[in-house]
Amino acid sequence: KMVRLQDQLLVQKDEQLQLFKTSVEETVQTTVETGIKSYSAAVQKNSTNGAVCNSKILKNVMKSVAAEEDRSKNLIVFGLKEEDEEQLPALVTAVLEEIGEKPHFKATRVGWKRPGITAIRPVKITVPSSTAVHQILMKTERLRLVETHKDVWICPDRSSEERATR
């Protein structure tokens, strides 16, 4: 008797699951169709001669959006002394702790180290989110007050076009 009840329960659960699956499939199908119609209408409305953008333009737009998104999680640190066999994460942690921030990050020097040239290469810091970048940038003024880091400054990672306009 117990086994029969369990079988009935399993059959009912299977029926409910199938009904739920069908409902979800119909909802997704309707949503996709509506979205495609909306996108199609927007493209037709916004195109000047009725032609849709070519693939090169679309690829360039996608590349620039992806690059901007990648850059939004980066900071560039200038003036951080460069030493042989340096512990870059420790140096960056010290700077960030001076302004009261302790995010997870990855840090690398930008550019090539050239023998005989004493120029200090900037450091690129990548943090998990653009919010963390914004919080750090809001506190960078504090570095001017610290004697050991008064020549260090932190900037957002800008594209070459943005750097050219500054």
Care to describe what's here?
The chain is an alpha+beta fold and 166 residues long. It contains five helices and four strands. Strands 2-3-1-4 form a four-stranded antiparallel beta sheet. The N and C termini lie far apart (82 Å).
Please outline what is shown here.
The chain is α+β, with helices and mostly antiparallel strands and 166 residues long.
Large-scale geometry: elongated
Strand runs, count: 4
Which strand-content bin applies to the residues?
A: 5-15%
Poorly predicted sequence stretches spanning 5 or more consecutive residues = none
Strand-pairing-aware structural class: alpha+beta
Distance between the termini: 82 Å
Order of helices and strands: HHEHEEHEH
Major beta sheet, strand line-up: 2-3-1-4
Average pLDDT? 83
| Radius of gyration over C-alpha positions, nearest whole angstrom | 27 Å
- Biggest β-sheet strands, sense, barrel: 4 strands, antiparallel
DSSP helix count? Answer: 5
Give the fraction of residues assigned to helices. 40-55%
Features:
166 residues; elongated; 5 helices; 4-stranded antiparallel β-sheet; alpha+beta
Layout of secondary structure:
Layout: H1 2-46, H2 55-71, E1 74-78, H3 88-98, E2 106-109, E3 123-126, H4 130-139, E4 153-156, H5 160-165
Antiparallel strand pairs: 1-3, 1-4, 2-3
